Amino acid sequence: MKETLKLGITLLVITAVAAGVLAFSNSITEPIIAEREKQERFGALYNIFPDAEEFLEVDEAKLKEVQSTYPNITEIIEIVSGGSTIGYAFNGSAGGYGGPVNVLTGISVADNTVAGISIGSHSETPNLGDRIEDPSFTDTYKGKTTTEKLVAVASPSADNEVQLISGATISSFAVLTAVNEANEAYLVYFTELDVEPPVEETEEEKEARFMSELFADADEFTPIDEGLLESIIAENIFVREIFEAKAGGEVIGYIFKTISGGYGGELPVMTGISLDGTITGIRVGANSETPGLGTKIEEPDFQDSFVGKATEEELVAVPSPAAENEVQLISGATVSTDGVLYGVNGAREAFLAIISQ
Amino acid sequence: MKLSEILKNGIFDENPVLVQLVGLCSVLAVSTSFINGLSMGLAVIFVLCCSNIVVSLLRKVIPDTIRIPAFIVVIATFVTILEMFLNAYLESVYKALGIFLPLIVVNCTILARAESFASKNKLIPSLVDGLGMGLGFTLTLSILGAVRELLGKGTLLSGTAAEINVFGEGFQAAGIWVAPPGAFILLGIFIAVFNVIMKKRKAKAAE
């Protein structure tokens, strides 16, 4: 008993001395570490706003309001110099290749331009995706407009163009998305400019818009006879739904909803074919193609190359389409192009099947 | 044992990495460059010397039954102090060593020296023993780091002002040498070469 007590007390004394020594060294180092962390935190802001004198966190209520529309924004800091606000900085993030990419976007209020950006923590691929940290990339955002949506291109020059890193498309787009979101949040909540946050279109609304875009003259879209649809689906693996486009009660064409396979998964395509057998257009629905590459299939340049093509022959994709059955091939996004082509060719065959009946 | 022998013992005859094979976890992880290896080595020298000093001074006070927890407290205290000061004054080293800095607490080299040497010897020999073992650890780690860096990145002294790109800009380095498997392979080669040298020296001494 006495022995145990002695052991316990010995250990107690040793640990107490250790704790005392640690408390002492902590009291020396703690303020230095805290100061450095503050420097690190605001260091990025100093680089963006060299004239800054004070950094004020925007109050909680305002932040909550912004977050209700832009949930990815975690922090907003007001930058003050000479007693007046010279800018705002938004800490936000967007999904990259290896996880969220944190981006600090500084906006100067004098001319509503991006004052600079700084990349925070991320898990992008070393030597590839992490090139988003290079000044040669981040500097391309400096001085760009906030009033227009920024776009990423290989060699940026215009006021709304920023760098796209080849080989690191997804990482580049993560940064772009975060900056665009910050810009929009800034315009909506921190300027007198009359900017409304964009209203998200529901899937149904999008579909209805696509349909009326494919047949501008039509006033009604109705699903075709179920028996007919079933007989077509039985022989066509791509077609899911078919609609008749009617103008004044007369059928003027058909809309085919197909699902084919792209690079990132299922690829829904809507194809409009008028009664005389020409394609009125195509629309690509929600997909998971590579941002900035595969998603070019959503752009008018590509979709419009289908307009006016005939349906007798199978369509093929070529770099510079000319003939009746040639459409645009997107270089670098062959698989996505082919995916769309499968769907459209499926629609084409379904159309021929309907006509023959 | 003479002091010079104690020192030599730590660097060569009982080199903690190449002969005793202790503390390999941090050896393999941190030796990706010369400067990382050197920083880790210096950190270990500091902790090893301090803990050897304190353990040697307290060797008559600490009862045998609770010596291990007592040693661990001593070691952990010095590691934590080191961690705080590195974080405050040498942040780049603190970041480079990362989790392996607090893990010095469980580096077998240090506890082994406290247990097998410092708790049985006087202050000065214990200090010299800590220095010798620490130098053995540091030398091995630095050389391993330098070789890995040279093969895996094509540089020498990267992370310092004197960084040299040995093979020129276009050199495609073999990344395996800075990855964990490369560390295992190189460490194996190191041990083999070290054993050959030591054997030859012993044979010569016997003649």
In words, what does this structure look like?
The complex is a heterodimer of chains A (357) and B (207). Chain A is an alpha+beta fold and 357 residues long. Chain A folds into two domains: 54-190; 203-356, no CATH class. In chain A, 37% of the residues lie in helices and 25% in strands. Chain A has eight helices and 14 strands. Chain A has helices at 2-48, 60-69, 135-138, 169-190, 203-214, 226-235, 300-303, 334-356; strands at 54-57, 75-81, 84-95, 100-108, 113-119, 151-153, 161-163, 220-223, 239-247, 250-261, 266-274, 279-284, 316-318, 326-328. Chain A has a five-stranded antiparallel beta sheet with strand order 1-2-3-4-5. Chain A has a five-stranded antiparallel beta sheet with strand order 8-9-10-11-12, with helices on both faces. In chain A, strands 6-7 form a two-stranded parallel sheet. Chain B is an all-alpha fold and 207 residues long. Chain B has one domain. Chain B is 67% helix and 2% strand. Chain B is built from eight helices and two strands, in the order αααααααββα. In chain B, a hairpin with a 7-residue loop joins strand 1 (155-156) and strand 2. In chain B, helix 4 packs across helix 6 (108-116). The longest helix of chain B has 31 residues, at 123-153. Chain B is globular, with a radius of gyration of 18 Å. In chain B, 40% of the residues are buried.
